[in-house]
């Protein structure tokens, strides 16, 4: 019986799972003691498994760092292994996401040497405790028993934010692109089609970069509550350190940030440098706030934070400006209430107005993680402050509904945002994985 019990199971196969795996191996845990469960190739996941060469990292080459002792590892690797004449900009090199995915795969292979990954290519549908072990159900077919579990299920792909009527009458499945992150249906688009982008963030900019890159001539309609895209990354540099006041409340925090930022354009070096000087302390401040305070802050400022925090690669903004100059882009303010599908696609907005096009991309952001929802429903984990995920402590242990934390269940990755703050970028996740591997190997 004990032979069937896995020592460590990592749920997920994306960047977070890969860096957790790499750091555990580097800390001396043999790969035979780790089982990975996830549907795809380790290290790719939702973010870096993209097919489209037009989808780029939104950060310059020195930022997605996997090893704290060698932050420029990727930048050096890229110089040798990436052939991409379009990567260089005034703000640094912005490489293709698929090349970053290749980098992570190479790191995994290098760390493994001649050993093999033990991976089950499936999704975990249920996780529960039986006596002292964790049981992981895989697609209801198989149950794995484990001593310790790391949840790294990442960013759930987008789902339509409203009802889609007559979905079966779509001219082709790619007329309705529910999850555009991979970029798989872009090649089939006729150059004169009218395209609707539902949502106006980085995913919409990726679609724009791809469409412009393949010579799109038709109109692109962007539907969203605001007619604004994230600013372009500038060549920012942290120079100073804010002198944070004591006893911050959300209102005082907002005031302090407002006063700290210079009155300069948000795509300028000076503005972005000040913004980036504020960021290193934000997680600590966030964690000091009560659940109530975090919810208020997120409700009031979540969209603004996302807008300025996740800035766009210069290549995507250049593509957007090209559309603007050609009068090929239109913003429609509003929120989708319903999508109707016939020969064309029509989005019915909250005020009853309609926007039609040949094809629609859902650029509305992350969906919902069914495993995390189940853990909350089954009372195994406590919901986090934002009610979107499960709560974790600062050492990534998952919080029990009954109080305290599990000693053998952790979570890393973007789903820890409600508990830990600004943890979505690759470098933050790699840091989490590194710290978790130290914790696990010291036990
Ligand atoms: C489209 C996109 C682009 C991004 N671009 C950047 C960028 O340029 N720079 C940057 O720093 N950050 C970027 N990010 C942020 C991103 O959060 C991190 O960089 C990182 O890639 C997240 O990795 P992850 O493994 O946590 O999540 P994901 O990449 O979402 O991978 C999670 C994986 O877990 C699998 N999974 C989910 N549920 C289960 C289950 N129940 N059982 C088994 N497996 C499961 C999923 O299928 C998926 O493959 C981007 C995110 C997205 C979505």
TrEMBL record:
PANTHER family: BLR0577 PROTEIN (PTHR40254)
Lineage, top ranks: Bacteria, Pseudomonadati, Pseudomonadota, Betaproteobacteria, Burkholderiales
InterPro entries per record: FAD/NAD-bd_sf, HpyO/CreE_NAD-binding, L-asp_N-monooxygenase_NS-form
Signal peptide positions (record): none
Protein name: FAD-dependent urate hydroxylase HpyO/Asp monooxygenase CreE-like FAD/NAD(P)-binding domain-containing protein
Domain FAD-dependent urate hydroxylase HpyO/Asp monooxygenase CreE-like FAD/NAD(P)-binding stretches: 9-155
Name of a matching Pfam family: NAD_binding_9
């Amino acid at each position: 019986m004990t032979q069937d019990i896995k020592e460590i199971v990592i749920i997920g196969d994306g960047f977070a799972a890969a860096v957790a795996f790499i750091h555990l191996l580097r800390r001396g845990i043999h790969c035979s003691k780790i089982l990975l469960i996830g549907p795809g190739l380790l290290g790719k996941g939702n973010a870096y498994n993209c097919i489209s060469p037009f989808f780029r990292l939104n950060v310059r080459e020195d930022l997605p760092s996997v090893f704290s002792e060698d932050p420029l590892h990727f930048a050096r690797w890229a110089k040798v292994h990436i052939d991409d004449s379009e990567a260089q900009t005034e703000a640094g090199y912005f490489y293709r996401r698929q090349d970053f995915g290749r980098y992570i795969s190479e790191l995994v292979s290098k760390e493994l040497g001649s050993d093999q990954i033990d991976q089950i290519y499936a999704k975990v549908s249920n996780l529960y405790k039986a006596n002292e072990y964790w049981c992981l159900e895989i697609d209801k077919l198989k149950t794995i028993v484990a001593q310790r579990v790391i949840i790294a299920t990442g960013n759930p792909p987008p789902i339509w934010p409203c009802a889609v009527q007559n979905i079966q009458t779509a001219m082709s499945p790619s007329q309705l692109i529910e999850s555009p992150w991979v970029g798989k249906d872009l090649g089939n688009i006729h150059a004169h089609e009218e395209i609707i982008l539902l949502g106006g963030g980085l995913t919409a900019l990726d679609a724009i970069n791809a469409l412009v890159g393949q010579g799109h001539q038709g109109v692109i309609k962007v539907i969203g509550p605001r007619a604004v895209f994230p600013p372009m990354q500038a060549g920012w540099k942290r120079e100073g350190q804010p002198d944070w006041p004591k006893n911050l409340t959300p209102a005082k925090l907002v005031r302090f940030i407002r006063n700290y930022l210079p009155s300069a354009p948000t795509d300028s070096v000076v503005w972005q440098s000040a913004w980036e000087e504020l960021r290193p302390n934000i997680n600590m401040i966030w964690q000091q706030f009560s659940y109530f305070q975090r919810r208020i802050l997120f409700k009031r400022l979540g969209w603004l934070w996302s807008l300025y925090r996740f800035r766009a690669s210069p290549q995507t903004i250049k593509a957007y400006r090209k559309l603007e100059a050609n009068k090929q882009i239109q913003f429609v303010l509003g929120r989708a209430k319903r999508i109707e599908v016939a020969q064309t696609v029509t989005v019915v907005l909250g005020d009853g107005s309609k926007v039609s096009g040949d094809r629609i991309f859902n650029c509305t952001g992350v969906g919902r993680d069914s495993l995390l929802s189940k853990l909350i429903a089954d009372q195994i984990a406590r919901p986090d402050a934002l009610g979107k995920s499960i709560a974790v402590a600062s050492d990534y242990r998952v919080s029990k509904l009954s109080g305290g934390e599990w000693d053998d269940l952790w979570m890393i990755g973007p789903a820890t945002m409600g508990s830990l703050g600004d943890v979505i970028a690759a470098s933050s996740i790699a840091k989490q994985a590194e710290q978790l591997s130290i914790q696990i190997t010291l036990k």
